C-alpha cells in the first residue's frame, strides 16, 4: 500500500512534499490503516538518526509494540504484526514514538496478496495542538520504576509519545492531536539544551522538523490544521544556562524573556484567532518564577480565550522526565481544566 493510497489516514505535522515518501519528524505523528485478509502487516521506511537509537511504535487493534530501526539511509522492512487471523478486520497505527532525534520516510505498508484495505472511521472532529519539550514528547516515559526520580541511562528505547500527558489528554477528550515538541528545547535561541542551546521554539514552531539544517526544513502550512485548543508548555529548559527567574524574576532579563514569550503567544493567536490557548509548564522541577512570569503575561494579554493553568505538583513533581503514571495524572488534571472551560470545541 503506497503512501498515497486513499484509505490511509495521517495525523500530525508530516513533511509530505514528497507524497510517495512522507517524512515523519514529530512525536505522536502517525499513519493508520484498516485491513483484512492478511496474516501480517509490515512497513517500509528509510531512517535518519541524529542521536539515540531509533524506535517506532505500533498499535495493532488494542495491542501496542515497539520496533527498532537498525539501518540508516536505505529501505528497511519492519514487521509490525504477524500471525493475525486473516478473516478478521484489523487496524494498524504506525506512529513516531520519539522526538526529532530521528526521522524516517514512510514508503508504504505491505500485506499478503489478496488482502483488502477498508475505510476506517474518520479521525475525531475535535482538534488539539501541544507545544512543548521532552515531557510533552513523552521522553523516558516508560521508565516506570523512576517516578519522582532522575532519568535512568537510556538510548531512546524508553521514550514513547503515546504515554505523554499530551496524547493521553487528547485521547480522554476524544480529540486528534499534533505534538510540536522536542526534548531540551526552550523558548529562545541560545537557551535550553536542544542542539546545545542553539535553537529555541521561537525559530522552530513554524517548521515541520526541528533538527538538522533549519533553513531547509519545510515550513508548516497552518491552514491545514486549525486546533480548537492549543496547549503551550514552554518555560522549563529556559533556565539553562542561566536561571534568570530564580536570580531575579523582576529584573531586566526576566522582563525581556516575558516580552519574547508574549510576542510568541501573540503570533499563535494570529495564527489561531478562535482557539483556546492554555499557557502552562509541567510537573518537572523548575523555579516557580517561570510560572509567575507566564501568569503575568497571561494577565497582560487580557484575552478571554488565553488562560493560565498549573498542575497540583507544578514545577515540583519530579527531577526527571515524566513517567507513564505521572503523565496520566497530569492528563486527568488537564482534562478536567479543559472541560471546565465550557464548549471549547465550537468551529
Automatic annotation (TrEMBL):
InterPro entries per UniProt: CE2_N, PCW_deacetylase/CE, SGNH_hydro_sf
A family per Pfam: CE2_N
Domain Carbohydrate esterase 2 N-terminal, first and last residues per copy: 10-119
Superkingdom, natural source: Bacteria
Identification of the protein by name: Electron transporter RnfD
Protein's organism: Parablautia intestinalis
Lineage: Bacteria, Bacillati, Bacillota, Clostridia, Lachnospirales
Amino acid at each position: 500500500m503506497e503512501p498515497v493510497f486513499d484509505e490511509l489516514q495521517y495525523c500530525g505535522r508530516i513533511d509530505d512534499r514528497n507524497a510517495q515518501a512522507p517524512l515523519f519528524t514529530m512525536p505522536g505523528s502517525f499513519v493508520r490503516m484498516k485491513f483484512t485478509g492478511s496474516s501480517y502487516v509490515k512497513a517500509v521506511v528509510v531512517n535518519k538518526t541524529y542521536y539515540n537509537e531509533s524506535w517506532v511504535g505500533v498499535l495493532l487493534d488494542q495491542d501496542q509494540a515497539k520496533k527498532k530501526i537498525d539501518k540508516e539511509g536505505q529501505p528497511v522492512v519492519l514487521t509490525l504484526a504477524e500471525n493475525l487471523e486473516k478473516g478478521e478486520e484489523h487496524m494498524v497505527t504506525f506512529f513516531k514514538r520519539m522526538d526529532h532525534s530521528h526521522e524516517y520516510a514512510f514508503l508504504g505498508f505491505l500485506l499478503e496478496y489478496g488482502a483488502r484495505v477498508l475505510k476506517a472511521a474518520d479521525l475525531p472532529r475535535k482538534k488539539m495542538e501541544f507545544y512543548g519539550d521532552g515531557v510533552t514528547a513523552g521522553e523516558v516515559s516508560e521508565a516506570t520504576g523512576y517516578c519522582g526520580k532522575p532519568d535512568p541511562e537510556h538510548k531512546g528505547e524508553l521514550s514513547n509519545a503515546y504515554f505523554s500527558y499530551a496524547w493521553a489528554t487528547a485521547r480522554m477528550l476524544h480529540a486528534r492531536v499534533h505534538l510540536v515538541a522536542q526534548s531540551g528545547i526552550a523558548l529562545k535561541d541560545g537557551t535550553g539544551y536542544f542542539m546545545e542551546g542553539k535553537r529555541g521554539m521561537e525559530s522552530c514552531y513554524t517548521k515541520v522538523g526541528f533538527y538538522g539544517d533549519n533553513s531547509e526544513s519545510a515550513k508548516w502550512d497552518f491552514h491545514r490544521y486549525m486546533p480548537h485548543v492549543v496547549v503551550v508548555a514552554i518555560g522549563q529548559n529556559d533556565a539553562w544556562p542561566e536561571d534568570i527567574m530564580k536570580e531575579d524574576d523582576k529584573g531586566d532579563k526576566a522582563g525581556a524573556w516575558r516580552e519574547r514569550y508574549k510576542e510568541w503567544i501573540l503570533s499563535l493567536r494570529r495564527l489561531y484567532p478562535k482557539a483556546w490557548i492554555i499557557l502552562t509548564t509541567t510537573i518537572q522541577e523548575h523555579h516557580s518564577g517561570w510560572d509567575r512570569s507566564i501568569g503575568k503575561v497571561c494577565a497582560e494579554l487580557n484575552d478571554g480565550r488565553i488562560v493560565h493553568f498549573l498542575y497540583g505538583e507544578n514545577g515540583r513533581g519530579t527531577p526527571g522526565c515524566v513517567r507513564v503514571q505521572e503523565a496520566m495524572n497530569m492528563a486527568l488534571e488537564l482534562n478536567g481544566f479543559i472541560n471546565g472551560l465550557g464548549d471549547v470545541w465550537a468551529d
